[in-house]
């Protein structure tokens, strides 16, 4: 690969470089990754065209495209049909891919990642309550309004599973956003994508046994009211209880246990 002297980086700066992997595709991935995270790199910034990159690194377009696929899967670039790729905004796509694969391979991972989701959401509720009681209260109003709307819609049609799923997700996303922690929000969104099937099973099982289908809306309202008190401890307790119900449901599913070892 003729990307320049071994002691030069993709931008032409001299200096020691870390050892490069042998695969041409992996080398291109490594070089373009440096372009995406190096000084001056900004989300939305355009990368050189595939033709330019292939010429710069002295590789075929086939190798370059394979490298770009890898970079897109890692959440570093966003490719557009017929246009140069751009540097992606920080995102949790690698987390989403990891969680999805783990859950597919090991049913115990579903419980583990649900426990992680619980820990993050409980902390998010704490942060949201702190913001409500602090100088950033005004910035949370839109998020709180979205949470209220989700509860109202959930209550209006509690027997419709798609509505329940959509409004459940919207409520938790709104509260996460109210925390003001963007990284926490992104990680929770990644977990949500991979745990969506489990959430649907929880709702269907609830509807099959609950006396009052609208009770879910009431549960979410309790959590929101706790956050709105501005008392972090109260918010934590409410979210802790709410998500503990979800964990219990997963633990008690008929097929939740691993098959016995032979």
From TrEMBL:
<keyword id="KW-0805">Transcription regulation</keyword>
<dbReference type="InterPro" id="IPR008920">
    <property type="entry name" value="TF_FadR/GntR_C"/>
</dbReference>
<dbReference type="InterPro" id="IPR000524">
    <property type="entry name" value="Tscrpt_reg_HTH_GntR"/>
</dbReference>
<protein>
    <submittedName>
        <fullName>FadR/GntR family transcriptional regulator</fullName>
    </submittedName>
</protein>
<dbReference type="InterPro" id="IPR036388">
    <property type="entry name" value="WH-like_DNA-bd_sf"/>
</dbReference>
<dbReference type="InterPro" id="IPR011711">
    <property type="entry name" value="GntR_C"/>
</dbReference>
<feature type="compositionally biased region" description="Basic and acidic residues">
    <location>
        <begin position="1"/>
        <end position="10"/>
    </location>
</feature>
<dbReference type="InterPro" id="IPR036390">
    <property type="entry name" value="WH_DNA-bd_sf"/>
</dbReference>
<keyword id="KW-0238">DNA-binding</keyword>
<feature type="region of interest" description="Disordered">
    <location>
        <begin position="1"/>
        <end position="23"/>
    </location>
</feature>
<dbReference type="Pfam" id="PF07729">
    <property type="entry name" value="FCD"/>
</dbReference>
<feature type="domain" description="HTH gntR-type">
    <location>
        <begin position="22"/>
        <end position="90"/>
    </location>
</feature>
<keyword id="KW-0804">Transcription</keyword>
<dbReference type="Pfam" id="PF00392">
    <property type="entry name" value="GntR"/>
</dbReference>
């Amino acid at each position: 690969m003729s990307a320049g002297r071994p002691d030069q980086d993709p931008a032409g700066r001299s200096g020691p470089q870390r050892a490069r992997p042998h695969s041409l595709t992996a080398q291109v991935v490594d070089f373009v990754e440096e372009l995406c995270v190096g000084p001056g790199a900004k989300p939305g910034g355009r990368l050189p065209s595939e033709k330019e990159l292939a010429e710069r690194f002295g590789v075929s377009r086939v190798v370059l495209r394979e490298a770009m696929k890898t970079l897109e899967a890692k959440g570093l670039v966003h490719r557009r049909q017929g246009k140069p790729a751009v540097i992606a905004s920080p995102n949790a796509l690698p987390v989403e891919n990891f969680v999805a694969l783990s859950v597919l391979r090991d049913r115990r991972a579903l419980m583990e990642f649900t426990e992680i989701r619980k820990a993050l959401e409980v902390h998010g509720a704490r942060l949201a309550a702190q913001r409500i009681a602090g100088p950033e209260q005004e910035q949370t109003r839109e998020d709180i309004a979205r949470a209220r709307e989700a509860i109202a819609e959930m209550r209006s049609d509690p027997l419709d599973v798609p509505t329940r799923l959509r409004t459940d997700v919207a409520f938790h996303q709104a509260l996460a956003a109210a925390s003001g922690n963007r990284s926490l929000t992104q990680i929770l969104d990644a977990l949500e994508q991979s745990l969506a099937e489990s959430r649907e099973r929880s709702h269907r099982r609830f509807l099959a046994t609950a006396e009052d289908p609208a009770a879910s809306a009431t549960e979410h309202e309790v959590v929101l009211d706790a956050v709105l008190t501005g008392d972090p401890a109260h918010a934590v307790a409410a979210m802790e209880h709410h998500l503990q119900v979800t964990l219990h449901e997963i633990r008690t599913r008929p097929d939740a246990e691993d098959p016995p070892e032979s």
